[in-house]
Amino acid sequence: MNSTDLEPLIYTYLGYKGVQPDGEIDRHISACLEELEKIQGFKYRYKILSDIPAFLQKEPYLSFLNGCSAIILCVCTLGAEVDRKIKYLGRADMQKSLIFDACASAYLERRADDFEKGLGENLTYRFCPGYGGSDISDIRYIFGLLKPEKIGVTLLDSNLMLPQKTMAGVIGVGKTAKKTCDNCISFSACIYRKEGTTCYNSAKR
Amino acid sequence: MLQLGKKVIVLDGAMGTQLEEAGLSGSPEDFNITAPEKIRAIHSSYSAADIILTNTFGLNKIKYRGAFSIEEVALKAIENARAAGKSVFFNIGPTGAMLKPLGTLSFDEAYAAFAELAEITGDIVDGYFVETFSDLYEAKACVLALKEHTKKPVYVTMTFDSTGRTLTGSTPEIVANTLEGLGVDALGVNCSLGPKEMENVVKRLLAATDLPVIVEPNRGLPELRNGKTVYGLGIDEFEYYIGKFVGMGVSVVGGCCGTTPAFINAISKYSGRDVAPRSVIKRTVINSATRLVEIEGVKICGERLNPTGKKKLRDALLNEDYDYIIDEAVRQQEAGADILDVNVGVPKIDEPRVMAEVLRRVQEYSDLPLQIDSSDKDAIEAGARYYNGIPIINSVNGEESVMERIFPIAKKYGAVVLGLTMDEHGVPRTAEERFDIAKRIVGCAQSYGIPRHKIMIDTLVLTASAEQKLVKETLEALRLVKTLGVKTALGVSNVSFGLPNRGLLNKTFLAMAMACGLNMPIMNPLDGEMTGAVRAYAVLSGEDENSEKYIDIYKDFTPVASAAAASARGEDKSAATLYDCVKRGIKGRAAELCEEELRHSDPMALVNDVLIKALDEVGKDYDSGKLFLPQLVSSAEAAKAAFEVIGKRLPKEGSGNGLVILATVKGDVHDIGKNIVKVVLESHGYTVLDLGKDVPAENVVGAYLKHKPLAVGLSALMTTTVKSMEETIKALRAAGCMSNIFVGGAVLNAETAREIGADYYTKDALEFVKILQTLKKQVL
């Protein structure tokens, strides 16, 4: 894992306004990324569907998927060990916990992106239930189809997932769509947007 | 007749693959009733196997969503499996739900689901085949349910990924030690991998247990072809690997996903062959779900989770303030403990319940194996039952009635037992007498089926001030006990009781004891000189090869005198003053510098002139974008460490700024923001009661009523959980909460906060503190 290109995103998560290289934090980041590699917790579960399933036959999914030749449903996670590590560090060393947490989020995004590269050339970003006014409980359909419990992911009654470092989403095949803030669930309250940055690497895809 | 462990046994192949072949889709278990002839035909097609597994993999009340009752399906499934005319084992798969804290299912709920199956089928099957489990804790619930309801053999296989771990992070050694301890008849690996990818796991299982080992691979790794999962490994290759496994000493072989009758026919030639002999070294090993510790060389058992003489811990246990207990556990782990002793013995406490709860909470944060320390049999049993892994039980002694009470528990849960060389007559004076008791304990343990490697002996330390001559008897007894082939333990710091400069005596005695064969000092790991002595001993005894661990820990070591010189030169990491320490976020030295400054400063002056001033500076820099969250947090941690020192000097009343209750609301599991608020509040001298995450409204209300805090802080990440935040606020108001309710979290803003009835929205931790301070001024 090349840590230098993940660093801008990690610094953003840590609340830095633009990249402010900091020797000591850099060292912590490298150590955390190394540890994440060592834990080898990344797991991905997906299904490629040629037709749009019923639960996506509505807005905003239809606009998002318009022009796609197929769709991918996915759930991916860094697993229980990463969660436990964040928890432990939260008690042992809060600063490291914070950095490890930010690194884990960025690392999960990266591993998912890399995995998806193997699934097809032209893909949209991961659109998650809850985006653009969609109902977050649509995630239940994704769970029904993918059985992510097989990779250790649990859906709580509140529609949040355990472990914490888990993502679920819908990807369109045969179309590129860059991630934008417009349909984000946190649009109005987003701390990154207020700072003029984004929580994602906007150059991606 | 099956001759498990002597002759190779062949299992049947995949059921799912055959159902698909037969054109059956839907709830697989229901076909036992709706298409019995097809199920029987599948079973019969596997008649080359010695054991047929019932078509009941998904049949438990948590997972099964079919059309019939569990009992109907189970009974019919057994009848169908009998059609092949072979031994029938009832197949049990996992519930599909994750156990707490990784998921939402409780241990008892999982246990009940499996117990139901055992009750229905106990008399009419030949055994149980528990397979494809990926969580050790769930496997434990299942094995206990079966062992407590039937006498039939229990075979258990777990599934490992390509890194050689289960989904929840258990290695083959951890799985083998735990399942062997729980008394299964055979254990092994199935599913997820093909035979080739399984080889390493198989080798490790064979080396870790002398129980019969089961291997049930998939037909290679699955590939996706035209949207369908296919398994492509050829029969010859499959058979080649099965042959190889049999040659390595595997006792039971079969096929998992993708295998067909042709595969089982091919490997049936191994049925009845002699199981290849192997020798397994028996070790004294304990484990949590993700960490295994072998008692070999010297391993540190942290003694601090014991309320004897510790008022704070005693209060924490009585108030069930698990926060304090978890912190104490983590501190010891950070300091280098390998194992943690847990003792909750406080008068009038519900010891079994609290023991189980403390173990559960500590295990959520620390992966160190634990030692259950109690004289209450029920507390020991509750601890051993709910502990995820194999613990140490502390303790038995030479008294018959004590061994009678404790050994059956140790046997049932596979625990290692610590035996004290004393009996109803007290602690014998001579080494020989203590050795005799040790022999008695080892002998009695064996009569309960507890092997020697599951016993450790403590030859008991008496204080040098009262019994100076007996110190050497303890050491001599250690030497004698080692000849029994058991590992040893000592509570070393007893030796110095009643004498000045106890640290010096403890350290010296520890070194002497290690040289006499002490394996597990039970000691305070926070004492750097003691842990240092253990690390140094590991170098000098040759255990720490090439002094690697020692060098890693001490590579940056500078003696105290030169550290002061370095800080005078302004070198990094050695702040000269407490102010610097907080300003620059150097947590490590804050407590020490605070002690130093307290020698010539008034505690309150230190708070106002140093800590608050430094924190204000940090806050200003943070607000103006000169400092960022990681630095803010490390400054807060440094200040918090200093506050802890100052808190001890101040009179109890008025020592702090007041109590704040924090919780991440029900349904929400993202709590890093709340944790930051906690540290920052504590750094400003507030006491925080952290209720954790996913906290139901009634718990917040309960804590409010009990403590009447200065403020309640609630966090939520998602829109969906903001609803739960609103409900929590309503419940608080209904209970008459006049405290200030603060809310924060990613999707919140001042407007939403008002809408849901909160008093304050704070965008970050510092703002929380600022508002609290303003409120305080208003009150004054």
Write a concise keyword list for the protein shown above.
heterodimer, A: about 200 residues, alpha+beta, NADH Oxidase, 3-stranded antiparallel sheet, two-stranded antiparallel ribbon, 7 helices, about 40% helix, about 15% strand, B: about 775 residues, alpha/beta, 8-stranded parallel sheet, 30 helices, about 45% helix
Brief account:
The complex is a heterodimer of chains A (205) and B (780). Chain A is an alpha+beta fold. Chain A has seven helices and six strands, in the order ααβαβααβαβββα.
- Can you name the CATH architecture of chain A? 3-Layer(aba) Sandwich
Number of structurally distinct domains of chain A: 1
Distance from N terminus to C terminus of chain A (CA atoms, Å) equals 19 Å
Which chains share the greatest interface? Answer: A-B, 50 and 57 residues
Q: From the alpha carbons, calculate the radius of gyration of chain A and give it in angstroms.
A: 17 Å
Indicate the topology.
The complex is a heterodimer of chains A (205) and B (780).
Chain A (H helix, E strand, L loop, with lengths): L6 H7 L9 H17 L3 E7 L11 H5 L4 E8 L2 H13 L1 H24 L11 E4 L6 H8 L7 E2 L5 E2 L3 E8 L17 H4 L11
Antiparallel strand pairs in A: 1-2, 2-6, 4-5
Helix pairs in contact in A: 1-5, 2-5, 4-5
Chain B lengths: L8 E2 L5 H6 L9 H4 L1 H10 L5 E3 L16 H13 L4 E6 L14 H15 L5 E7 L2 H12 L6 E5 L13 H10 L4 E5 L4 H14 L4 E4 L5 E4 L2 E4 L3 H14 L3 E2 L7 H7 L17 E3 L4 E3 L6 E5 L5 H8 L3 H14 L3 E4 L8 H15 L4 E4 L3 H10 L5 E6 L2 H14 L2 E5 L10 H17 L7 E4 L12 H12 L4 E4 L11 H14 L4 E4 L4 H13 L7 H7 L5 H9 L9 H7 L2 H12 L4 H21 L5 H21 L9 E6 L7 H12 L3 E4 L6 H11 L3 E5 L3 H16 L5 E5 L5 H6 L4 E2 L3 H15 L1
Parallel strand pairs in B: 1-10, 2-3, 3-4, 4-5, 5-6, 6-7, 7-10, 13-14, 13-20, 14-15, 15-16, 16-17, 17-18, 18-19, 19-20, 21-22, 21-23, 23-24, 24-25
Antiparallel strand pairs in B: 8-9, 11-12
Helix pairs in contact in B: 3-4, 5-6, 7-8, 8-9, 9-10, 12-13, 13-14, 14-15, 16-17, 18-19, 22-24, 22-25, 23-25, 24-25, 25-26, 26-30, 27-28
